[in-house]
Amino acid sequence: MLDAYTRLYIDTFTRPPWNETWHPDDARQRLHDILTTPRTHHTHTALPDGTLTGFAIGHLERYAGGTDHFLLQEMCVHPDHQRQGLGTRLLTDLATQTPTATHWYLLTGRDTPAATFYQANGFRPAHLRTVYVRP
Questions:
Q1: Are the C-beta atoms of residues 44 and 89 closer than 8 Å to each other?
Q2: At what angle do helices 24-35 and 2-13 cross, to 10 degrees?
Q3: How far apart are CA 59 and CA 101, in angstroms?
Q4: Distance of alpha carbon 14 from its chain centroid, rounded?
Q5: Domains of the chain listed by start with CATH number
Q6: CB–CB of 98/60 below 8 Å?
Q7: How far apart, in whole angstroms, are the C-alpha atoms of residue 45 and residue 83?
Q8: pTM as predicted
Q9: Torsion, Cα of 23, 1, 9, 79 (10° steps)
Q10: Which residue, among 95, 85, 92, has the nearest Cα to 117 in the 3D structure?
Q11: 8-48 pLDDT, tens per residue?
Q12: Helix ranges, 1-112 (H)
């Protein structure tokens, strides 16, 4: 499954609007690292012939008060299969796998189709948190 995830990841994120440059070894290592994180959950969609069309991966994290938060780390649907409900199905599948999660969070680009998708699926920009980066 890791090889199929890697191929789809590269094919999706090297296209607009992301235009990222992924070497197969780097993408494979990233996805391997995420998939082997403790309390990881993942799901995927495929065509009847088994061709992967999308996947989502994240993990549960313990938070104060004995609650769990879910970090959605990577999600992609092949551009040829977007806007068909597959992304929403992936989120629904993960929610079924992680019923103890009281909050979900993720990072994505502002003003992107992904941000619009996540907001349509119940996510909102965090009002009390921000992301800081350092060169």
A1: no
A2: 120
A3: 10
A4: 16
A5: 2-120 (3.40.630.30)
A6: yes
A7: 14
A8: 0.91
A9: 140
A10: 85
A11: 999 999 999 899 999 999 999 999 999 999 999 999 999 99
A12: 2-13, 24-35, 86-97
The residue count for the chain: 135
Structure token pair of residue 109: 């680009």
Report residue 40 as tokens. 């990881």
Task: Kindly state the tokens that stand for 86.
Answer: 């597959």
What letter represents residue 131's amino acid? Answer: V
Give Cβ neighbours of residue 71 (< 8 Å, ≥ 6 apart): 58, 59, 61, 104, 105, 106
| Cβ neighbours of residue 45 closer than 8 Å, sequence gap 6 or more | 52, 53, 54, 55, 77, 81, 86, 89, 90
Cα-Cα-Cα-Cα dihedral of 105, 44, 40, 11, to 10°? -70
pLDDT grade, residue 71 (50/70/90)? very high
Q: How far is residue 91 from each of residues 10, 24, 52, measured CA to CA in Å?
A: 21, 26, 16
Q: Which residue has the tokens 């806007």?
A: 83
Tokens of 56: 């989502």
